[in-house]
Amino acid sequence: MTEEKQVTDIWRKYRAGVEHHRSKNLYRRDERCWHFYTGDQWWGMSQGGQELPMENIIKPILKYKIAMVATTDTTIVYSEMSENLILQEICSELSSFAKEEWERTRMDELKWKVVKAAAITGDSYVYACDTRPESGAVVQDTTPKIEVRMIDRSAVYLADEQEQDIQQQAWIIIAERLPVEAVRRQARENGLTEEQIELIVSDAETDTRLNNDQVDEIKQGDGKCTCLVYFTLVEDEAAQPGETQKKLRFGRSTEQVVYQPMQEVPGLDLYPIAQMRWEDMPNSARGVGECEPLIPNQIEINKTLARRSLIVKRYGYPTAVYDAEKIDNPVALQKVGAVVRARNLSGMPITNAVQYLEPRTTSGEGAALQQELITTTRELEGASDNATGQVDVTKTSGEAIKAARDQAAMVLNDQAAAYKSFVEQMARIWYKLWCAYSPQGMTFLYKDPEGGEGMLHAIITPQALAALDMQIKIDVSPADPYSVLSQQTSLDNALGGGHITFEEWVSVLDANSPVPAAKFRKILEERKAAQQALAAQQAAAQGQGVPQAGQPDNVQQAAMQAAAMQGGGMNAMQSVPV
What is the pTM of this model? Predict the structure, then answer.
């Protein structure tokens, strides 16, 4: 009798999650959706040894809806709910830094993957962490180092699959496949004994991974093993009244060994995981995607196309009928320009030995059914040609196209709200990570909002971070070509009508405007510099004093005096050129 393995508590929770996923057929359903979206639509079905045709209607429908949700300019804005001017200024600096972090972490690229995965399978997840080491080095390093990565939904296991708020989960597990050598190295760094390290071995837990099988893994070294990242929120007994009452604990485990013991992150009172659900299902933590409901129609369209193709190949061409006693090489009848050898044809024409059956005409019902399925499916999904903008733009105004697309996009309001909620989750996670990993203050660089070429250096004390009663607002604006064209046309009309000046027109141009805004701004700056130089020469000629460049005017002096009266501003934050 073999001795039963002693598995960890984390592994037992993971196995319970695996059983839930299998009971819902989650692994195969997700894999099937991805195959149908990418075009492998005969996956899992018998083709009779042939390469059968297919017409992918799922991909254009989903690409249109994904683009309608993801093609937006997203801006994170941190707002302070109180009227404290100092804290409001800190929020402004955090908003500037968040914009830089958005670019550094390539969130504009990642958001497309997040929205696409949610549309295909129903929901998607992004994990964020601060890569500074969990040690005393954090005290010395005050610059945040946020990293984000996307997680397949089948690799995320929840304590309660009926709880839709991810922050209310008792625990969350992320499963991943890592080389055994790398895991053993981490175990040694965490102080495990060699006896414990020997229990870290490769396994065959590949059926729980999307599009991953044992034959897909390269066999080298000791292979790979399933590793679990375990998160849980516990009560913070050391928290004072008014402070956060929870703290995050996390650890890492294989089947038999917890190779990274549980650690606490004081000040981090939420899971660093953001979720986007495409469409909610009552009493379910998972979302409903667009792909799976379309698969039955897609299968029927492909089968109808395959039947039509087979009928055409079988009956759509002339068929040779020959006398086997008179034709020596009947195979030549199928070749262009081949010589056909015949015997005993004296006194008898060749047409008596070889004849052809004319092609049969087939019913158009199959083609009509196929086209009806395609058209009806696209219209029911709100992805017809008019909705997706597949029209002649030379014959239609940008305003008309935009109006039609906006009308069609109304059915995606839920998805747009879900995406906005996802960005808000990411913004709050970033802020909490900044607070938790900056016990000695937070230092960051951001671009000069006045347009200067240099970077500004901001320092925020931990007391100021903790004092913020943060409210997060997400600014979202459409960025599709027709919306940009419509906005630009409105600005041009206002300028042409004399309602705004050229300087005002240039000042409101967006970065995605088709107009070369940067070049216009440079021209205006050169004009301004020339005017200042001319004014200085005139003043010098008249023997009058000229204000020095950069000297504050009355308004600036009043603003500086008001800021000084606030007091304590420099103790909370300093912004200096680098």
Answer: 0.73
